[in-house]
Request: fold
Amino acid sequence: MADWAGFLGATMLWVKAGHVIFVIFLMAALFMMPRFFIYHHQCPVGSDEDRKWIEREDRLRKIILNPAIVIVWIFGLMLAFNGDYWREGWFHGKLLLVLLLSGYHGWLIGYFKKLRKGERPLSEKRLRLLNEVPGVMAAIIVVLAVVRP
Ligand code: HEM
Reply:
């Protein structure tokens, strides 16, 4: 066992509760953003609605998406050091998937910046399909974290 294992003591359950609460906020925003993109795509570039969607997406990014991912990572890493899970298979799987989910998060921000510039690189159908990705990932992450197969 490493020196830092168990450093959270009785606070660990509070950190875990905080982790799960911010996971809910993060997932909600990850589901909302591509939905917003689909509605956004339906507005002509430069229209009033276009500007309104840019503003909504910007707010979702600044108020929920970005703060939530930072807090989920901080609490998650605290839990990982506390439990000293670094050599456990379920944790390797979870880490890989949360890294992919963070990559998806980054891609969403990049896509938002393109929409803001008036670009519409993907079709609506593609966006709908992409929206399935975070749900499947979240389901596997939860099974890995809870069942620890
Ligand atoms: C972003 C990086 C993340 C890290 C480093 C991380 C790390 C951890 C660790 C180490 C635990 C175990 C706490 C313990 O019982 O000792 C945990 C619990 C949990 N994590 Fe994460 N996590 C992350 C993201 C996520 C995400 C994105 C989800 C869901 C989509 C998630 C869902 C959960 C759940 C549901 C638990 C509670 C499991 C239980 O004990 O019943 N985590 N996390």
Notes: The mean pLDDT is 97. Residues 48-83 form the longest helix (36 residues).
